[in-house]
Specification:
Blueprint (H helix, E strand, L loop, with lengths): L1 H38 L5 E12 L2 E15 L4 E5 L3 E6 L5 E7 L1 E5 L4 E12 L4 E10 L4 E4 L3 E5 L2 E5 L3 E4 L6 E2 L2 E7 L7
Antiparallel strand pairs: 1-2, 2-3, 2-4, 3-6, 4-5, 5-7, 6-7, 7-8, 8-9, 8-10, 9-12, 10-11, 11-14, 12-13
Length: 193
């Protein structure tokens, strides 16, 4: 009889212990979930298929087209995010198109006037120069673009490549390449046919 009671107490103790372990594990999971939820950044504003115009003193500086837009504002930072990319067209003082930028992803740190474009970034100017890279920074206040990644510039039949990036005015008139990998490659058209 005594051994039956002891066995029942023993089993009850095991059940209580298992319950306590499960409860403790659940509390930890809830804490983890709430920590993850606290860190999640939700957009203050969002939009789809937008055309955004950026101007200064009533002069249009550039227009940006995007399929998806998020305005993010946290205690640490404020930026506009374009997870499906951008197509920017920028203008000179007389309203002529002087260049454009395409990318598959972008961020605009509004207060700093700094854009970060990533993934298949292409910059073109009105003269036909084309720059390609995977990461580009565009300082709209200084009208300056730069990168520290592999970059390729095509200018007519000339190609210039750099493994360590470049810096230039946004119109690609005076680009400076760092650590040129293959030098300048020139192509000549075969006109014998």
């Amino acid at each position: 009889n005594m051994s039956v009671i002891t066995r029942k107490s023993f089993y009850k103790s095991i059940i209580v212990l298992c319950g306590a372990i499960m409860l403790f594990a659940c509390k930890n999971d809830i804490r983890k979930v709430s920590r993850i939820t606290d860190q999640e950044v939700l957009p203050e504003m969002s939009g789809e298929n937008l055309i955004m115009t950026y101007s200064d003193s009533a002069r249009v500086k550039y227009r940006m087209y995007t399929p998806l837009y998020y305005k993010i504002h946290t205690e640490e930072e404020e930026y506009d995010e374009f997870p499906k990319g951008i197509h920017v067209i920028y203008y000179d003082k007389t309203g002529n198109v002087i260049g454009e930028i395409h990318s598959k992803y972008a961020k605009n740190f509004v207060k700093d006037g700094l854009w970060e474009a990533r993934n298949q970034v292409v910059v073109k100017n009105s003269e036909g120069k084309k720059l390609e890279t995977e990461l580009l920074y565009w300082d709209t206040k200084k009208e300056w673009i730069y990168s520290d990644r592999y970059t390729r510039l095509t200018d007519g039949n000339n190609i210039l490549e750099s493994s360590d990036g470049f810096e230039s005015d946004q119109n690609l008139e005076h680009p400076v390449f760092k650590n040129i990998t293959d030098g300048e490659v020139q192509f000549e058209m075969d006109t014998s046919n």
